[in-house]
Amino acid sequence: MTSTSTSPTTGSTAGTRVGTTARRTRTVTRRDIELFTEISGDRNPIHYDDDLAAGSRFGGIVVQGGVTSGLLNALVAEQLPGPGSVFLEVAWRFLAPVRPGDEITASATVTAVREDKPITTLATSVTNQDGLVVLDGTAVVWRDPSVAARQHHHTHPAGAPAATQEEPA
Q1: What CA–CA distance (Å, rounded) separates 59 from 97?
Q2: Are 24 and 108 in contact (CB under 8 A)?
Q3: Nearest C-alpha neighbor of 90 from the set 143, 124, 139, 135
Q4: Which of 62, 114, 145, 156 could form a disulfide linkage to 119, CB 3.0–4.6 angstroms apart?
Q5: What φ, ψ does residue 125 adopt, rounded to 5°?
Q6: What is the distance between the alpha carbons of residues 135 and 25, in angstroms, rounded to a whole number?
Q7: Which residues does the annotated region (Disordered) include (predicted)?
Q8: Confidence class for position 161, pLDDT limits 50, 70, 90
Q9: pLDDT by residue (tens digit) across 110-120?
Q10: How far apart are CA 25 and CA 38, in angstroms?
Q11: How far apart are the first and last CA of the chain?
């Protein structure tokens, strides 16, 4: 699968305009929970113990918040603003659980671009297959000008999330 941006970027924020939106979609699996547990050490049984999770207020297994927000990390790093981007600040609210098998879509829309520094502010959200917002908030992102100047399209391994980007009219 190929992930590409439709807006040309020649500098750290060049080509990034207020209103530009990018989306990235992925189906979450139990394997994602296992991998995140291995990486993070988050062994909360609500993520893997079916019986315990069934008796919780969530009524079943829930995916770690880091897996859910991780799709926004990929969107920012790969698409908007793109390679060389790192988070300076995030303010995210987790509004509903994500479960194995859910198809989630991360979305980011540019709300501000600094003229004096390579900094972009984004409105962010993640929705599930039913359109329910499971995460929302904002992010402030810095993009390394030296990486942005060398940006090129990347071919990603099979199974990489689908990605789209829309420019404002």
Answers
A1: 10
A2: no
A3: 139
A4: 114
A5: -160, 160
A6: 14
A7: 1-23, 148-169
A8: low
A9: 999 999 999 99
A10: 23
A11: 28
What would the pLDDT profile of 35-45 be if each residue is shown by its tens digit? 999 999 999 99
Q: Where are the domains of the chain?
A: 2-27+71-166
Please state which CATH number belongs to domain 2-27+71-166: 3.10.129.10
3-state secondary structure 1-66: CEECCCCCCCCCCCCCCCCCEEEEEEECCHHHHHHHHHHHCCCCHHHCCHHHHHCCCCCCCCCCHH
The candidate with the shortest Cα–Cα distance to 141, out of 161, 166, 123, is 123
Q: What is the pLDDT of residue 59?
A: 96
Task: Provide the pLDDT confidence category of residue 23 given band limits of 50, 70 and 90.
Answer: very high
Torsion of CA 35, 37, 40, 42, to 10 degrees: 160
Kindly give, in sequence order, each residue whose CB lies less than 8 Å from that of residue 30, ignoring residues fewer than 6 positions away: 48, 61, 100
CA distances from 42 to 48, 52, 153, 169 (A): 11, 16, 34, 43
Which is it for the CA torsion 133, 138, 143, 149, positive or negative? positive
Task: Describe the crossing of helices 30-40 and 65-78 by its angle, rounded to 10 degrees.
Answer: 90
